[in-house]
Amino acid sequence: MQDILIDTTEGVMTLTVNRIDKKNSFTQPMYAALADALQHASDSADVRVVVVQGHTTIFSAGNDIGDFLSGASASADAPVFKFLRTIASFPKPLIAAVCGPAVGVGTTMLFHCDLVYAGDNAAFSMPFVNLGLCPEAASSFLVPQMMGYHRAAEALLLGEPFMAEAALEVGLINRIVPPSEANGLAQAQARKLAAKPISSLIETKRLMKKTNSAQVQAHMEEELHSFGRMLREPAAKEAFTAFMEKRRPDFSKV
Ligand code: COA
After folding, report:
1. Which residue, by CA, sits nearest to atom 7 of ligand 1?
2. 96 located within any domain
3. For each successive 10 residues of the chain (254 residues), what is the average pLDDT?
4. Contact present, 95 and 117 (Cβ < 8 Å)
């Protein structure tokens, strides 16, 4: 079974994260598949809107921790970075349906989506500090901008999760529905968008994003530089090893 399922029907490309046994955590081949699919969607006249979805119980547990440990994510040309650059500059409408935990990149990618529909079981978290890392996907810029600095500090320094109601309040998501309805709502909204003139959609999105785009790019590149370095440092190694060994990390010596 493929870890990323791709279906294109009537102008809507749906990307389903499908690695449920590992809580939809992302491996480098999965990022590569997502980046390629988004690039194809960007270039192809057959795709007008993209929907990203997971399972009703889990959106994504973020980056695969084994990949972090092996160093697969550390090089500047790793597929994760291609995926992040592609999603951040994706020109057509992008919708996410999120149920269950959305950890790390599972949350930060949502800042690059245009519409986000969440199940009432959605739980968002960006525990980069708890893993000895720093934010990615321009979240160090976009989270304070959206939530205000102090709420961003709770999310990014403490790494505290927040639930769908809080995400709705800060504007990260558009609507909360029962988990069984989230994917269907995303599809219904995608079909509405797919019926609209694509050039107007692209130009409107470009104009809305214009003010932020240079800063998003600059933050993302700086974050990726730091993130790649921190992946190799002792704090991150301890956090990843502790996760694999199913114990609490001990940062007292790092
Ligand atoms: N990378 C690799 N494997 C992961 C994973 C990840 N990010 N998240 C979960 N898994 C694996 C677990 O190791 C476990 O594998 P096993 O069955 O072989 O032991 C399986 O998925 C189920 O995970 P488990 O933790 O038992 O599920 P849960 O329902 O109790 O908790 C989460 C779900 C998402 C809250 C929890 O798995 C978690 O916190 N994951 C890590 C999140 C993280 O720190 N991601 C990195 C962000 S940068």
Report:
1. 64
2. yes
3. 95 98 97 98 98 98 95 84 96 98 98 98 98 98 97 96 98 98 98 98 98 96 94 96 96 90
4. yes
